[in-house]
Amino acid sequence: MIKANELRTGNYLQNEGTKKVVKVYGIINDDVYYSMNNAMNRKAFNPIPINAERLLKFGFVFIDELNIYEIKLPNEDSFSVDLVEKEVLITAGALHDAVQVPCEYVHQLQNLYFALTGQELEIIEFVK
User: Fold this and answer.
1) Distance (Å, rounded) from C-alpha 126 to C-alpha 24?
2) Which SS3 state, helix, strand or coil, does residue 79 take?
């Protein structure tokens, strides 16, 4: 189950019953609004696992056979996802200092990207 403090507007979730992917419009108490007038308790939603197809839809580029996908941050640092280890690797600065952060689900990826850039990680079409 997704914790309430992990969610923010713009996150993608999957309805447990219908399996439909929704984008969070707003959150009030324990209710997740997926449009202006439609809401369900957050317990009705599941996190969406990160996979290669979803990363490509977010604009990541496949790097190597180790299942690494990368996107450049606005300041040219790199933001890579390792699908095997289920983590994000953020490489920054001239010394290429790196930080590894566990990341298994789409909403976690979105939140981490937003925290680093102040920008949404947007997709054109969500792939199941």
Assistant:
1) 14
2) strand
